[in-house]
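PROTEIN DESIGN WORKSHEET
SECTION A - STRUCTURE
LENGTH: 58
TOKENS:
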């Protein structure tokens, strides 16, 4: 938090800048403060989870 990446809103931690994680499971402990594989926790703009959304490759 000292380096200005996170903002403590009192009820959650908010990222103040873009930050790329290598996997959904890597982001979960940082952003959710708990263990999670991220496939059901992260949702797209339409509300679909990563587990429901087909994977896109570049």
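SECTION B - SEQUENCE
RESIDUE ASSIGNMENT:
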């Amino acid at each position: 938090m000292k380096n200005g990446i996170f903002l403590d809103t009192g009820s959650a931690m908010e990222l103040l800048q873009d930050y790329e994680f290598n996997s959904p499971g890597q982001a979960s402990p940082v952003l959710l403060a708990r263990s999670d594989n991220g496939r059901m926790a992260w949702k797209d703009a339409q509300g679909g989870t990563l587990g429901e959304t087909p994977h896109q490759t570049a």
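SECTION C - NOTES
Strands lie at 6-8, 13-15.
The chain has one domain: 1-42.
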